[in-house]
Amino acid sequence: MESDGKYYISVLFEYDNHTTTYVADKNNAIGLDYASDGLYTDHNGNKGSNHKYYRESYKKLAKEQRKLSRKVGSSKGSTKSNNYLKQLRKVNKIHRHIANQRLDNLHKLSTEIANQYNVVCVESLNMRSMSNKGFGNGKATMDNGYGMFLNMLEYKLSDRGKYFVKVDKWYPSSQICHNCGKIHHEMKDLKIRTMSCDCGYHMDRDQNAALNILEEGLRILIDAA
Q: Which residues are catalytic?
C-alpha cells in the first residue's frame, strides 16, 4: 500500500533475450545536455519537455496542506484523528498524481529516443548535488526528473542492443566552442545563454554543449571498440 491508500502489485519474470546488437552508427546518434527549463536540449536544438508538474499542481497541493495543518493530530506527538488521516490521504493522492504525470512523460520521451537512435551521449551528472540550494534551482531540478530519465534511457537502450555513452561530468562541454575548440571560461556563469566566439561562432549554450557531448561520446565509444 502506498501513501495515497492504493495498493500496487509488481510482477517480475524472466525471458530469453535475443536482442540484436546494433553497429554504433555515428550518423544515428544524439547528444543531450541537461536543461532545468526543458529536461534536455539535444544537439539539434530540440527541447525535451517544458512541463513542471509540481509547480502546475502547487496551488491545489498548498490548499489541501493548509487544511491538513488545521486538523486534530497535525501537531507533533498528538493523536491522529480520522479527519486528519482522511485529509492526509488527499494530500498524498496529489503527490502520487504528480509523480505519475512525471513518470508517464519521462517514459514516453525516453522510449521515443531509444527507438529512434542507436547511440545516445549524455553527461554523467550528480543530480542530488545539482538540486542543492546553492544552485538556486533545486525545485526545478527535482521536478523535471532528469536522473530518472537517464536511468530509463540506459535500460531501454540496453534492451534494444544500442549504446548509452556517459561523458565525464568534469568535461567542460559548455565552455568549449564547438567550431574551433577554444575554451571560454566565462561560460561558467549560467546567466550567459549564448556561446559567442572570436571565430564568429554563435550558438545557444545548451545546444553547443550537446554538440560537444555528442562529439566526446562518440570518441569514447570508438576508443572502447
A: 33, 123, 206
